[in-house]
Amino acid sequence: SQQGEEDPQALSIQEGENATMNCSYKTSINNLQWYRQNSGRGLVHLILIRSNEREKHSGRLRVTLDTSKKSSSLLITASRAADTASYFCATRGNEKLTFGTGTRLTIIP
Amino acid sequence: GAVVSQHPSRVICKSGTSVKIECRSLDFQATTMFWYRQFPKKSLMLMATSNEGSKATYEQGVEKDKFLINHASLTLSTLTVTSAHPEDSSFYICSAKSLAGWDTDTQYFGPGTRLTVL
User: Fold this and answer.
1) Which residue of A has its CA nearest to B10?
2) pLDDT digits (tens, 9 = 90+) for B100-113
């Protein structure tokens, strides 16, 4: 079954704006990870946040985690055309990494 | 570091033939490799977990006789789609976890293999 549901399914913004994507999950987790996938390509690991962390930054990325609400958000600041891709959250409970449905982000130059 | 390769990147085959996809961790040893399947504009669905030297663990609904997985070494896992049919056409992605020590929570993904069965 699908662990993560992402919202929105698709997002189009102007270059330079910030993009926010949300992920909700159902069961307890050890950590939550965000990945990017360019069309027809493999996944690139962006950032990992552990269950005892609430916020994490990496460059233009900011991830938050609210375990009480079983949700996470990914913020990309100052978006660039190269950020156009699909973004997936993935939760790890035991050994398995379970992916969300993904958000298709389009940056309009 | 942490590069995972897949070969081939794209394969087209006739219905009824078997196709082998290789997944290699190039600069690290992987105790565990994972095989995923992705349909167009959909999420990744875990098919099986492969541990070096032991039998793969398949997810519910995945036919183990259809999708043969071999993890013969700490750097190589193979997925063989046997007697492929058009409904097996998909994007297959592998990933690998490192042996121990650094960053054991992160999985590194291969670039994927596009399989088209005619």
Assistant:
1) A40
2) 554 556 788 999 99
